[in-house]
């Protein structure tokens, strides 16, 4: 499709939907609050709005169409269609969050049951499903850490958070936003976070260690217990970023390594759809000593009836409106119930097997490597450094060219510690045949890069649009984050 | 049986793959995890539902214990609103191409970039501001971030907050801001609007909501903007975009940052699952620099006349610079942005105006009828949009009595105060039914 | 997508869905009825089945994506999404057709109301919503005609049905299937069915006239009342094929021209989605004297309660299982309720305006013509005869090439009375801009045909597959109507 | 307001278009219709719902007066069956690309051709026959046409019909066949199967159903095939494809034509709206020539190895030759064919087998439990699949009593006979609940 911008399809007088007329006397607004000019929204018939978005959707790649193993760290797995049914049911979609508790016993029970399930998976004492996403759960954890230290009179003293370079940037960024100084541990020569650096960093100013494991490289830190002990020894808390717990479900648990807090992303490990970047869902798990600080309200069960408990004086309060991202709580619960303990373990094992199999295929492509060896769990951060040195083609360019074959990959977060990075995570959802096809596409593009690097650099050739000139996007005089800005700057 | 969600759990393929990588078993691949950390028992989880049918039956059984708002007459609002959701909104956000995509590049995910660009562009028209972010989590987060933006922009750490903000939102703002921002709460005036306020050069911003927690439309925006600007502070206004077909957008009276929740624009109530936040500013580099969220912009491609898309000023973000970025960015509520775009495109300028007029008129009608029925309507002389507060002898008593009649009468603000919400979904008959019930109960 | 045949994606042992285990003692089947070999169905995981069909769907063009004005006679209009909601609701989807009447009062009321609406639109006495489609409604009408004449003792005598060449082939074919001899009137020099031929054909053997008006050419026969009178005069019945009534809603009615029977297609005029060719929906309307013969049961209302009446001794009986294609009855009802009398008239007027506007644009393309002049209602059967004579490119080839630009058209039913035909019907759903774009594409292809006819003949270039070699499809030795036949004949 | 469904109703564009074609008004375009035929008043229709919300409210109000089978425990079958519908089936058939497409060419509608080809191909595997049609309306039509095919194939006009066919289907077959085919009804034997039959060289076919109207699986298929073939007639068998994971397909015991309804394969009950019919034969030109429906076949393209699709033997059809084609062809139930294909692909061979075993076992369990409860089960020694008949003192009485308990107990066949349907959706507990209720009512 060569689909125009929606404003270009507008024709005055057309309408996409009709609105009920008031049917009661109109209200005259004072001039101070009355809108002067109608907003310049598009005017289109209903079919034309629908058609526009259907066409745009066809210019997008979801898990439902693609072999989505390239979005490493994101756990792009199948979101079962049956779970969408539950959340589209009026029994979820048409519930108001402030209804009386006894009219929402079903949804409260789902919250309560999912909390118990995640507590068992993590070994934690309680779990809050309020955070809106993984990063929001990280922030909630920081807020609880802050409240915990404050409750002990150490709020001012403990002003540092330690994290690692291969933990998600939100660990550092949320800590900073919450007022902490951030110390980042770099990987040692084996790819593990440097324990000596931790020893040096830890101390009376340490509020917490925020760490992912396995890190975004797919490398599991075998000395994780020691990391936790070191922090505990200094009076700090240990917080486990389990955004991606897909490879270790039923294998190892946050509590067993001594963590005080952890979080899950419902939209990664627990299959809720990624939705172009949310609505997502986070879960913050805490040990008993952190439980009083959980966001409120909590869902409690008295043996016959579920209710909301907002009377929690030490709580950090609200992280977001109401109880949580309910549709994703429902989906995640249904997903676990479709698998059970044995199924979850099969998820983890298959995710790890798939990853190791894919690694085996990728590393057979000349020019691809996996720094720090081949011991990986659910994902791998690879490098095209070899290919780049040989051909001058960057990883990003390889990725764009691969898109011409219907697949995609993500490089990595900044900074690129692994040079020319690409991060693959096949999860349990893909078949061996998918992995073979994916690897074959990358092998083909790598070969193309060797034979005709300019061709690869000129990609894409088979997408909705051609190579994008990014220069204007960072120039305040030219950038156009809205059509309004664009028309003013470029069409006036 | 091989689980339908796990194709390679099939024993034959599993063996083939293990052989290919030269591993004897999957256990080998876990050798890196120290024995002491290994869970030595199966997880203690409920028995799974072995088949899709049994799962459906189980879930249906659970959810049947909910009474949803199509089964009763609900006047609940207070941050989550029962506006009509056009079927086309559901259709678009239900399409797997959008629902199951994530964070691809502007090539194979051109559709998402364009849809999101169009969403921010339509919001920009509604708000009369040139810069709108890719949605953050919700209106709470949007307010917190908007205030932090003002703090960073001005380099000051005091903020004057309207007191007409919901308790929950205030709780969030305290948690998010308290550690380094001093929040000064402005009293609510007798008329329901923000009361008289004073600020000086130590203030970063005035934060105002309209309609506020009582449904009252603030009319002194221009005055507050002048006050703020007079001391070098910013005016930050939280406004529900659904009101802006009839109400002046914050920019029109001088607001520097607008923010709010877009749940009204095509999202179901979903027990609080339909929220997403917007933040908008004028196109001033220093202000734009303070936005933590992604901004999607239009850009030329190798083919003249073709529109591509990309990230505007990516350097601001924590993706680019970890803790050196502005706050943080992560997965938030993109699909609700796309959906709100569909909503605005369906409505167009006329639809937004008509909707606003209907809500204004029916809110006033409900206020009058409920007052006739014997409840004391608070702030009766103020302009109300969608909500109003009433005082009754007992909040709990009246709510319980109305519930017996199949009515969720409103949200309890305190022992004697209720907040009643009226949208275009509430017909005149619905309102009359509420009023009649209130009358009988208060009689 | 280059999506393989589903069997090629199978791997033994995989599963797309799990089935409840019996949980009670198994039953041993006798060998005579026990299946010997498992069926060779594909074995795939759930995501892979979904992905396959999502990809196939993206290789298909629906009204939701395309400017579907090219499927003339089919009234490709917008099917409002909100109407799908109603039929996907368990309150429709999970109703069993043999529930007690008082548990289905809602759906019976919808049937009853839609019957009243269609009776008003057609002027007929009663309407049956049982027929599964337009053709099934034609067959139901024939069955009633047969029963009517039989009830008068003229069943054997009246063994001929008269139709016209530009009426849908099902009129002829259903009459033949019902045992009638078929007489087909050809158009006269003005494109009208030849009234002299009718005079010659009509007589004591005439059971009925089955006629479309406007015919598939879009030409309204102004002497239609005379046609009806001639048939009535001979003791025959007049039956109106209103499969496509889109241009005359609220303008003229079947009963007013004297017809005894008529039928509508819910999936044409009344907006129910075409669904790749059904499920569809038909409605048979009859005058009072034909009412006793309607298929049963009927829906009756006693002032407070709706019920099914199956006690109708002269009824032709069942045309299909149960009451009708309920989801489409619900959709059609909702569609009318969204429009009302004024809206329906606006539909008709806009459909006719759109058609005349499009005709104006098409006839400005050199090589295109519209035999029999420009008086058309809702559609036009055009001809590329001029272009063909000049370039040797057939209408079918033009159509295939147009598909490269994302549009499609249909030629016409056989035989091609209009040479090199194509039939366009823009309905009310398309915008002026759509019509301009559609005409521009055809003009572009016509121009291409003139400049480079071989290029057009070689099309498609921009579709999932390339030019198909049709020869094997008519050769019993080679044809492969299933994968089973294909593997036997071509892969063995 | 311009109606959202009619973009060119907008007065400005309407005027532009009229000007372009040189017409003064739309009335001009209707000049061809004689005044006498013109309706001189507006249609007398109900007031429309002006907005989508009001339409939704109206429809919701109407439909709320239905009690659906998820709200009660339903044992209704008799031609429409409550099997589990996988969510993926709904997802695929809800996609606009399939739902709103029609009859395009094998190029821009390649997906539809392939999906339909795959459906017939999967049915072919299930049926062990090489030729399967694009769906006709329903099992009734499929049976009628299958019988007519035999009549045309043999040139004979007498058919022996199993008497174990539902009354409604018999009504359809009579209407469809009676005028030129003589139908001889075979009695039902004491065991519930077809009784002894005799035919001679004047018969075109024996028509058998299995499971038949009583849920009884016919075991004498081979014998009947031999009998038919012995006199040059065909055996036509109607079989529900959902049973064929465990039951032998008709072809295995010599049937020449198989037919039936595919509603079981992924379609909702939808108050009778989920039906589609299949017809299958061996790949014999003379038999294939008698199929009226379209047949989609695979064909090579200009690119080696690529699969294209097209119509097989189009010349058979009324599209090609009007009344000279075989019966007629038109829009029927294509989307249900695609859906049934999705269903079969999800289930695979093992799923179909397990489903069959579950249904067989639960049917038998239900028969035993209901017999224990005091009802007389008819044909207790026959193999039953999914349905069985019981005799009770009063059909209406028992049904009414069960309904009071939230149970739709079965379909009334006559004053004393009920038909009970059990699928994989009925758990053991459900069956026990029915039995307990029957016991109490009959006690």
From TrEMBL, chains B, D:
Residues covered by the Glycine cleavage system P-protein N-terminal domain: 5-435
Domain of life: Bacteria
Enzyme class name: oxidoreductase
Record-linked InterPro entries: GcvPA, GDC-P_N, PyrdxlP-dep_Trfase, PyrdxlP-dep_Trfase_major, PyrdxlP-dep_Trfase_small
Keywords, ordered alphabetically: Oxidoreductase
One Pfam family recorded for the sequence: GDC-P
Gene3D superfamilies on file: Aspartate Aminotransferase, domain 1 (3.90.1150.10), Type I PLP-dependent aspartate aminotransferase-like (Major domain) (3.40.640.10)
GO molecular function terms noted in the UniProt entry: glycine dehydrogenase (decarboxylating) activity
Enzyme Commission designation: 1.4.4.2
Record carries keyword Nuclease: no
Keyword Oxidoreductase attributed: yes
Protein name: Glycine dehydrogenase subunit 1
Originating organism: Streptosporangium brasiliense
């Amino acid at each position: 499709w060569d689909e125009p911008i929606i404003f270009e399809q507008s024709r005055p007088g057309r309408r996409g939907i009709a609105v009920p007329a008031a049917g009661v006397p109109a209200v005259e607004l004072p001039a101070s609050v009355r809108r002067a000019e109608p907003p310049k929204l598009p005017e289109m018939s209903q079919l034309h709005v629908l058609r526009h978005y259907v066409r745009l959707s066809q210019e997008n790649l979801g898990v439902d169409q693609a072999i989505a193993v390239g979005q490493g760290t994101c756990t792009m797995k199948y979101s079962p269609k049956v779970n969408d049914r539950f959340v589209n049911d009026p029994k979820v979609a048409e519930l108001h969050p402030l209804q009386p508790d006894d009219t929402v016993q079903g949804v409260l029970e789902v919250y309560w049951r999912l909390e118990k399930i995640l507590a068992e998976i993590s070994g934690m004492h309680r779990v809050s499903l309020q955070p809106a996403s993984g990063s929001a759960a990280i922030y909630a954890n920081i807020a609880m850490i802050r409240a915990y230290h404050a409750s002990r009179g150490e709020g001012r003293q403990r002003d540092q958070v330690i994290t690692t370079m291969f933990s998600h940037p939100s660990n550092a960024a949320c800590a900073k936003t919450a007022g902490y100084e951030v110390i980042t541990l770099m990987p040692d020569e084996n790819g593990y976070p440097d324990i000596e650096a931790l020893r040096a960093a830890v101390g009376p100013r340490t509020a917490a260690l925020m760490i992912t494991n396995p890190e975004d490289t797919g490398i599991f830190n075998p000395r994780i217990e020691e990391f936790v002990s070191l922090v505990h020894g200094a009076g700090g808390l240990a917080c486990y970023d389990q955004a991606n717990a897909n490879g270790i479900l039923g294998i190892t648990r946050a509590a067993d390594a001594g963590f005080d807090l952890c979080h899950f992303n419902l939209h990664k490990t627990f299959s809720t759809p990624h939705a172009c970047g949310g609505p997502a869902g986070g879960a913050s798990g805490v040990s008993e000593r952190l439980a009083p600080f959980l966001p409120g309200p909590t869902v409690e069960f008295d043996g016959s009836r579920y209710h909301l408990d907002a009377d929690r004086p030490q709580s950090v309060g609200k992280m977001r409106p109401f109880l949580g991202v309910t549709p994703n709580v429902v989906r995640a619960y249904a997903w676990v119930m479709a698998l059970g303990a044995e199924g979850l373990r099969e998820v983890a094992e298959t995710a790890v097997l798939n990853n190791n199999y894919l690694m085996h295929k990728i590393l057979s492509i000349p020019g691809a490597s996996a720094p720090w060896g081949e011991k990986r769990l659910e994902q791998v951060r690879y490098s095209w450094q070899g290919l780049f040195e040989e051909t001058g083609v960057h990883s990003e360019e390889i990725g764009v060219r691969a898109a011409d074959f219907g697949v995609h990959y993500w490089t990595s977060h900044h900074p690129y510690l692994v040079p020319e990075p690409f991060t693959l995570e096949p999860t349990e959802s893909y078949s061996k045949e998918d992995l073979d096809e994916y690897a074959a596409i990358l092998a083909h593009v790598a070969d193309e890069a060797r034979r005709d690097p300019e061709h690869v650099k000129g990609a894409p050739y088979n997408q909705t649009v051609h190579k994008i000139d990014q220069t204007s996007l960072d120039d305040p005089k030219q950038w156009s984050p809205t059509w309004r800005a664009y028309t003013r700057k470029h069409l006036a | 049986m091989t689980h339908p969600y796990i194709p390679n759990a099939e024993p034959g393929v599993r063996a083939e793959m293990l052989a290919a990588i030269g591993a004897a078993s999957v256990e080998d691949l876990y050798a890196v995890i120290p024995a002491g950390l290994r869970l030595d028992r199966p997880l203690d989880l409920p028995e799974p539902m072995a088949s899709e049918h049994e799962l459906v039956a189980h879930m249906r059984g659970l959810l049947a214990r909910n009474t949803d708002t199509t089964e009763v007459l609900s006047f609940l609002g207070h941050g989550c609103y029962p506006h009509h959701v056009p079927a086309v909104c559901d259709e678009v956000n239900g399409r797997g191409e959008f629902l199951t995509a994530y964070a691809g590049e502007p090539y194979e995910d051109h559709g998402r970039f364009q849809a999101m660009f169009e969403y921010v562009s339509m919001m920009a028209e509604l708000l009369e501001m040139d810069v709108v972010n890719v949605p953050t989590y919700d209106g709470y987060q949007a307010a917190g971030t908007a205030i932090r933006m003002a703090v960073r922009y001005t380099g000051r750490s005091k903020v004057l907050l309207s007191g007409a903000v919901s308790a929950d939102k205030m709780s969030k703002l305290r948690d998010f801001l308290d550690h380094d921002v001093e929040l000064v709460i402005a009293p609510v005036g007798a008329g329901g609007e923000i009361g008289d306020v004073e600020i000086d050069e130590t203030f970063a911003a005035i934060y105002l909501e309209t309609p506020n927690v009582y449904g009252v439309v603030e009319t002194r925006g221009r005055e507050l903007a002048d006050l703020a600007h007079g001391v070098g502070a910013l005016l930050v206004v939280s406004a529900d975009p659904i009101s802006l077909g009839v109400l002046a957008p914050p920019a029109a009276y001088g607001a520097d940052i607008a923010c709010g929740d877009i749940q009204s624009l095509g999202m179901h109530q979903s027990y609080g699952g339909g929220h997403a936040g917007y933040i908008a500013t004028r196109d001033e580099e220093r202000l734009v620099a303070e936005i933590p969220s992604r901004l999607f912009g239009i850009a030329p491609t190798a083919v003249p006349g073709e529109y591509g898309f990309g990230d505007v000023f990516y350097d601001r973000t924590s993706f680019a610079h970890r803790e050196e970025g502005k706050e943080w960015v992560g997965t938030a509520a993109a699909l609700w942005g796309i959906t709100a775009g569909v909503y605005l495109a369906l409505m167009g300028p006329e639809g937004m105006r008509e909707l606003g007029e209907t809500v204004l008129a029916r809110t006033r009608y409900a206020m009058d009828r409920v007052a006739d029925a014997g409840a004391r309507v608070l702030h009766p002389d103020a302009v109300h949009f969608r909500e109003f507060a009433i005082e009754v002898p007992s909040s709990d008593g009246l709510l319980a009595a109305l519930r017996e009649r199949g009515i969720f009468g409103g949200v309890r603000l305190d022992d004697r105060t209720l907040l009643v919400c009226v949208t275009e979904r509430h017909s005149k008959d619905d309102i009359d039914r509420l009023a009649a019930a209130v009358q009988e109960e208060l009689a």
